[in-house]
Amino acid sequence: MRIETIIMDDSLPDLLRIAQALNHLSSVTDEFQFQTFTYQNPNDMNQYDKEWYIIDIDLGDISGFDIANEIKVKNPKAY
Fold first, then answer.
1. What residues are paired with 55 via a beta bridge?
2. Which of 2, 25, 28, 18 is nearest to 55 (CA)?
3. Could you tell me which of 50, 1, 51, 56 has the C-alpha nearest to residue 26?
């Protein structure tokens, strides 16, 4: 199963760590294959059609909860 995933975190080390973990998981199992899209700046994200979102709670000027609410409005099937 391929899972398109957005990762949003304003900390580059954390962003890379999460992406690496998902890529590692994809390499050790055939059950889940993650295709990741990474964003440090919430204003750069314009994709609302992905299945799974991992969002930092504190993104500086905006809350990850606000981003999550916006995603749910635009894509009710997102997790």
1. 8
2. 18
3. 1
